[in-house]
UniProtKB/TrEMBL annotation:
Coiled coil: none
One example of a Gene Ontology biological process annotation: carbohydrate metabolic process
All residue ranges annotated as the Mannosylglycerate hydrolase MGH1-like glycoside hydrolase domain in the record: 152-311
Spans traversing the lipid bilayer: none
Protein name listed in UniProt: Mannosylglycerate hydrolase MGH1-like glycoside hydrolase domain-containing protein
Length: 336
């Protein structure tokens, strides 16, 4: 186990610069920044602030020019605050970076909420957090380069609520006016449950504005609004029961020996998705299920290393064998 920790540390040290300067600015750099903070808080802060500065230079108003970043930054500010070596350093960090994250959320609600119901739209497959395996899937079902009307995605909006919650806490700590954040969050939470919750499916479903219809969610996206505490406790229990009876029930079991693999066809395991599911379950007090997801995920990384995704139904792991976000979340899990 120690050798894998050492490998994760080395990988983050080498690759974090490459991610930023190769223009790879998405959820990956956020997770990598968090992983770096577990190693060296000041170095993590330096990297995150460079990411935020790079974001500030982007033109989000030009369609097709810049992909939208998942709203993880409020959560990252809170995470860095908790990891800070002392209160003064933590407060200085928040004072320096709070307003930029607030401005990003303000932009999202101003420019990505066409229905004015608090549900932001994603307009490009690359803005979908869970589409790491799109190249593989495109052989079977081509994915368009854009979604013209936009999609109200459960995970994107759940991350927004989680990030809003963190900004509320930070704003209150700093004595800022948090009225806008409170109003945003109440509206988004209400609309997620009113429009995207499917009682029949026991999970959340995306809504396509061009088609004016819901459609089945792929991967774990329908379960991940747990991360923003979107459902009430009764709904959350339904979500857990749906997870237990779904094709993803293997996440709640020990990783079997390779010769005993019996995963569903096209099973692709994503460490970032599992990490979000773990924290969502934990937020609802479902600690036994959360621990099982964590144990399964750590076992996969310890067996196969750090991959973008793992295709275990084929008794083989696929993707990048040196995937920095997986290494970062491994360190985060080990440091919790």
């Amino acid at each position: 186990m120690q050798s894998l920790i050492d490998r994760a540390e080395k990988l983050l040290t080498i690759q974090h610069e490459q991610l930023l300067f190769n223009g790879k600015l998405d959820y990956e750099v956020g997770f990598v920044a968090l992983g770096l903070a577990y190693l060296d808080w000041k170095r993590g802060v330096s990297f995150l602030e460079r990411v935020l500065a790079y974001m500030a230079s982007m033109d989000y108003y030009t369609a097709g020019k810049t992909l939208l970043q998942p709203p993880l930054f409020g959560c990252l500010l809170a995470g860095f605050y908790e990891l800070a070596p002392n209160e003064k350093a933590a407060l200085d960090f928040l004072k320096k970076n709070y307003s930029q994250v607030f401005d990003f959320h303000s932009f999202l609600y101003r420019e990505r909420d066409p229905e004015e119901d608090g549900l932001l739209v994603v307009t490009h497959p690359e803005e979908d957090l869970l589409l790491q395996n799109r190249d593989k899937r495109s052989e079977l079902r081509p994915i368009p380069s854009v979604w013209p009307g936009g999609r109200q995605d459960p995970l994107f909006n759940a991350l927004l609520v989680w990030s809003n919650e963190c900004l509320l806490d930070i704003g209150n700590l700093l004595g800022a006016d948090v009225t806008d954040i409170l109003l945003w969050n109440e509206l988004t939470t209400f609309s997620l449950n009113d429009k995207l919750w499917s009682e029949a499916d026991g999970s959340y479903k995306p809504f396509d504005l061009e088609e004016q219809a819901s459609f089945p969610t792929e991967g774990l996206g329908g379960f991940l609004p747990l991360i923003g505490e979107i459902p009430d406790q009764d709904q959350a229990e339904v979500v857990l029961e749906t997870l237990k009876s779904s094709a993803f029930t293997y996440l709640l079991r020990p990783l079997p020996a390779e010769e005993d693999y019996d995963f569903p066809p096209d099973t692709r395991i994503s460490i970032p998705a599992n990490w979000l599911l773990y924290h969502g379950l934990w937020r609802f007090g479902m600690t036994a299920a959360a621990t099982k997801v964590k144990t399964f995920s750590l076992a996969v990384m310890e067996r196969y290393g750090f991959r973008e995704y793992y295709e275990l139904s084929a008794v083989d792991s696929e993707g990048d064998s040196e995937y920095a976000p997986a290494a970062a979340l491994y360190l985060a899990w080990m440091g919790e």
